[in-house]
Amino acid sequence: MAEIVIVASAFGVAQVLEQGHHVYVPLAASVGAAGFEVRRELLPVGLDGTVSTDALVALGRLITAHGLWAVYSTPATLYTDDGALDAGAICGALVEAQTLGARIVKFQLGGFTGDASAEALAQLLQGARARILVENGQQAVGGSLSQFSDLFSALKAAGLNDMLGMTFDIGNWEWAGEAPLTCAQALAPYVEYIHCKSVAGEGARRFAVAPAGNDAGFAAVLAALPGDVPRGIEFPFNAVDPAADAHQHVVWLKAA
């Protein structure tokens, strides 16, 4: 069975912003999760926009003390909108992930184009302690199947296919106008972490929801992806009894 990671935002974005990640670490451990995903955008930052080193160290120790391992999710992109490597954002996120003690650090792709240098990216990522993954986003830029196919083709051609893996967000493909199953069939060899959520609503009113137990489309996507990689719960838990809802979904997703 796959290890289950609980994404902090599943407990509510406003709640995590107000109370802090540390409040939800013991709860994630108590419901059977193996990992806890820290969201950089939900961490307090100083006037200079940086996250406190002491706060990251303390949070990392708390996660470890509860028998969990950490994912560090950053909104930083590997490439800027014009296709250039975002070296400053990459290096800053890698330092923060190392300070936290994260097993995985998750980036957004950004404006990658097929002629971008895989070797230059590899040089920036070299020596990172956390496994570096890139996630499909909700926008056309950074969320298209063609971009990810081109990225992994470029890495393979340069002999660097082990340098970078993928976080496959099932729901985000729908925001970007892509078919999740088609993407899963094309990108499965590169997937090392799965963000699990379904999508309700239309257009700008789309929002993340828990997959239904009888959702054949969601089940087909999971079946097309590696069964032995961690699965992250990113959909919101029931606010009335989040612990019970979290436990139910952890048990279900382990065996799905």
TrEMBL record:
Domain of life: Bacteria
Protein name in UniProt: TIM barrel protein
Domain Xylose isomerase-like TIM barrel: residue ranges: 27-234
Organism: Ralstonia pickettii
InterPro entries: Xyl_isomerase-like_sf, Xyl_isomerase-like_TIM-brl
Entry-linked SUPFAM superfamilies: Xylose isomerase-like
